[in-house]
Amino acid sequence: MTVPEVSRGSGRAWLLALLAGALLPGCESRTPPYRFPLTTPLEKSAASQPVRPDPASSAQVAPPVDASPTVEASTPAAGSADASARPVVAGAEPVRPEASGATPSDVHARTKAVASAVMAPGSANRPSPRASFRALPPTTERGRHLLSLGSRLMAPGGAVEDPCLEPTDTGCARSALTPFFAALDGLVAGTGEAAQASTVIAAFGNSLIAGDRIVDVVRDELVYGFGGAGRGVLLVDRMAPYGGRSRTAAVSNGWEPRTLGELRAPPHPFGITGVYHVATEARARGRFKLEGEPRGTLWWKDVKDAGRLVVSVDGAVLVRTEPQGDGASRTTSFDLPAGAKWLDITAEGRGAVVQGVVLQQDGPGIVLDMLGVPSADATLYARLEEDALKAQLAQRDPKLLLFFLGGNESKRLEWKRTDLDTVRRDLTALLRRTRAASPGSACTVVGPMDAVQDGHVKGKPLLQRPFLESAIAAEREVALAEGCGFFNLFAAMGGAGSLARFNQAGFMHDDLVHPRGQGLDLLGQLVSDALLKGWVEQGTQLAPPLTSSREEAPAWPGDGSAQTAEDVR
């Protein structure tokens, strides 16, 4: 979504204050991310099981929305029926904790054993090409609460459109989301590459996700169903001097953030985080609380005369970078001793540049990297440096690229600062560029939420933002043509007028641009439900095969033929 854009200097303080609407939602309380995955007994009647929203039921009429915000749902207790979330294996003996107390690892091991048996060679149930054991994870207590909230807000949910990339006479051999769905199959079955390594999701986007609350709900839901493998990509400090620290160092000082969403291009290009932090003083430091990670990675910019960066654990130096001053983006990896508690990244002098820090566990599970930046759109993502993009995406090896874009594009269309041809061209270039750097990944574009017109008068009816639906149609067209999935968040939250209902319920900030609280949670739940439903139903409701050539779009901006990021103001 868009926030006011200003140049550097005196305007930067104003920008930081106004960005609070984008990032402060991430500070609010939410369900803790770790929950024990347990399997629901199969003999329970279907009527007694909570279900995720069905896109086909969008025609139902919802009761009026209460004008007061709803109280946050409580966290389900580990081991309770409400905490059940491991995908159910059809026809298998139910996996449940014994009265004596089975551990999560015991439950996970039994689930994998059953799934492996289903997939064994010669089995009548061997899945080909779609895993026969796929089933929706039961809905958590928070999920049921958000489902109820969505009904009251008339948010019907929706499905991810999944175009067929390899049609056959009898169906589809491979769809856009096959790499991601196959990785989920591997996590459930405990077989293949997914059983040995983490399944990474890289979420690019704008301020809608920059506070990490929407994607945190997606992260929680997937970790709840498939296990987790740690935090992934983190920042050495926050993107502004406020907001939560769930995706940053626990304590930081002496850093200045620069983002690709700034009006004028900063002096250095960016890695995939879209953010870098510059040391404004000697001994600038970011301190991370370790969670048993065996190793880590530091992404940094080799800036001339910037001095070294020091990586230390519990006061002991692990490694120092050796800058060459050539401006390249570099990677420094390090092993972490068992039992280490604190990791420090320290700049020896002013000017050192940190792009990010990677911390995650060994072994299988979901990792979701939040790579959103306030004010970002597909055009501004031209500021990603090619070498850093290739190297960092290769290191992360995501199985799904998620793009939350369209809010800023629709606003800039309204302001006549861009046009639909530019929107199509720059999104096409972004998808091609990231997919070329990560050829084994699936990709999905999540369209913008409902938005109202700029300049509305308080007390007057809210008017839908011009070009919103045109921007959504353009993004869908590009996504499907480029072999990516598409999720229409605008339709899933209820279409035209849904923002007014969110606002009436107290789930919008005063700018009427950025959701807050459970409004953000509900949007995250809509996305996670759509991904899970797409996994279960892959092959049953595919989008049409590709009909347009992927060779028709122009090259990425930078060849002189496209509008530059500086032109968007």
UniProtKB/TrEMBL annotation:
Residues 30-107, 543-569 are annotated as: Disordered. InterPro entries: SGNH_hydro, SGNH_hydro_sf. Residues 355-519 form the SGNH hydrolase-type esterase domain. It comes from the Bacteria. This is SGNH hydrolase-type esterase domain-containing protein.
